[in-house]
Amino acid sequence: MSTAAALQTLDAEVIDYDALYADYAQSLVDTLRGFSAKVPGLELWVPDENLGVSLRNLLDSAASLGRVSVCLRLGEATAQQLSEAELSELGRAFGDVRLARRGAAVLFEVSRLGVPPSPSPAGLAPERRAAPAAERLATSAAARSPQPPAERSFEVYEARLRELSATVAPARVVVDRVGVTVGASLDACSLQLVVTPDQHLIVSAGSHAPDEVRRLLLAELCRLVIGLPLLEACYHGALRLEHRLRPPASGRPLAGIVLPRAVHPHFALVDDLMRGALASYRKVAGFDVTRGQFDDRPRADWLAASLEERKQRLELALAELLPGLGLAVADVSVVSIRYDVRVELGLSEAWKQLDQPPLVMALERELQARVDPRLEVYVQELKDKNQLRRLALVETP
Amino acid sequence: MTGMTDHTQLILDGTKIPWHLDRVEAWQRGERIAPITIDMALTRACNYACEYCYAMLQENDRKVITRDVILRFLDDCAEIGVKGISFVSDGESTLSPAFVDAIKHGHSLGLSMAVGTNGLAITRMKAEEILPHLTYLRINISAGERQRYAQIMGVREEWFDRVCQNVKDMVAIKQRDGLPVTLGLQMVVMPSYEDQILPLAQLGKELRPDYLVLKHCSDNEDGDLGVEYDKYEALYEKLRRAEALSDESYRVAVKWSKIEAKGQRSYQRCYGAPFMIQISGSGLVAPCGMLFNERYKKFHIGNICETGFKEMWSSDRYWEVMNYLAGPQFNAQTMCGSLCLQHKVNETLDAHVKGLVQLRNPNGAAPEHLAFI
Questions:
Q1: Taking the CB of residue B230, how many other CB atoms lie within 10 A of it?
Q2: pLDDT mean across residues, chain A
Q3: Looking at chain A from residue 53 to 82, which residues have their Cβ under 8 Å from any Cβ of chain B?
Q4: Which of A80, A201, B274, B307 has the fewest Cβ atoms within 10 angstroms?
Q5: The whole model's pTM is what?
Q6: Cα A11 vs. chain centroid, distance in angstroms?
Q7: What is the largest CA-CA distance in chain A?
């Protein structure tokens, strides 16, 4: 077929392939729902950097969706990627091919589409699975991770314990409080708790240990668990204790996830004593609840404050801490405070230049330390830019 | 070889974490473990507009995952010990120009590759290319009748016919070549879709995939999608009737454990994220898809379009975020949406850490799809 002849007969709708490709690429970023190549019959098309693959996909879509013909205009740069012979061969797998030149561009028409492509077109024969590399993967990261030492130092925790013991009176079991007294013993250490039978709250606690370090540790545990539900104290007591004792400057004690039992055997002791006490309580009081639902509440002064007062406290704290983080006061605003504890912050354009996630986390830590430990910090939600179909909180554009 | 999946070995409502005890033990020792499974998308774009789409709540800074980015990412995953990659998450990955190459490359590296898709763009030609490289392919289809399909999924009615044809083609290819790939259908059940439960189960029986799974719909912590978990109970009888349509090579399974949980969690710490992370179609790496939105910026770890995944995984920032979720200040009961991807893993690990259950090497043959926990 001569190009000149083809020029005479091409009458199909001409689709600008380059524009279509560019539009697709842009839509991948800005059209999140209802995405489509926009041309009828090409809705299944997925382009490719490789022109041959891209055109094959396009013709496959057109044929699959019952389109009779497709005529594409390939711009000069695009057309140069494949010879006329290659274009013809590609098109013939789907129908009759006609090619024509329009200046430096090429018109590529494939008609009589609709004959389904061969189930296994040349070059697309199903490949057999490669031999699994399970053996290689089995070595996994775990094998390459540093092995923990048999026992880590407890020094940093010990120093903190001594500090705390010098300032706070030890907790003791008060036997005349109404409650069920339960306890547990292990390695010559013991723990006693008094638990209210109605709410299962720990109202007093006492401990014994043969050495000073564990004595201080268990005394601190007792102080920490008084007022907590027994279930929470058992499930997360050791975790809370490790966090309370860990000096902020010392960093995390483990490379991966910090579970207290892995940090030091002393924390495993805490865990085991608490579990023993719970087991004892279950037996004595017939307590069979396993689902913990305790949630720390903010301090009373925060709860008593009005919304405006809370906002002022946050703004005051932000004004103090932002310069230290290299930010101006105007770079952060308090947008909302919901459910008493969820603080939503608005961030200025200046934040775009910053590594935002760790900074937001740092802001949260600081606001917890300066305002209330229960605060949660979030930034303003980014709304979906598309028409939402079912959201309960539909917003009009 | 028949190519049919052994259904007795397919876990559709549970977790396979007990089969990864070596990694659980490393995690307990405080070592840096690689995720077993990564759930991700290659784009945030989607050619559908499903009513229940959680992606509407996951908006974040948009970037493009190019072919180079995804291939490099897969190299990193294989190197650090990731086992399975599922292209599901917050976009329709089949629309990405890198989709086919990513599947082939991941498979060549020894990674188990899987896809969750609406199935529209998987023509027979594309199915021929990808099915030999996949562990499973799951079609999201939330209605068994064309008109309701169009309503629920926000598309033209003809797309229902096209997707059905694509499923038929995939089943035929699998049977012809004896491929080990598992083909599934998935219905996101909203109480108002009750009328479509049985028609879809029946449709599946005609199309002959390996299974149809019926699952709950997740919602965020503010309940913005308006999922009414109390109304699921009224569907139980229909769900059981749908299950009864199972036969020896087609299984209808309901995710009872999640539906009956009514959006509630038994645990407060999120321990599952180091085993199973999620990546947005924008390249954003976060411990969980429910934290993709910019609102949860403090949990964002990085972007694979800008930083290599291996570098990110070994960074202090990655483990700072993971530790936040496992720390005393985090409460999944109040800070998270409902029934997340990691839910079953979280449930199991939490009970293990609390000493309520003891994870042991499971007896008997390992289930299918071990790389997808």
A1: 10
A2: 84
A3: 54, 56-57, 60-61, 64-65
A4: A80
A5: 0.87
A6: 53
A7: 107
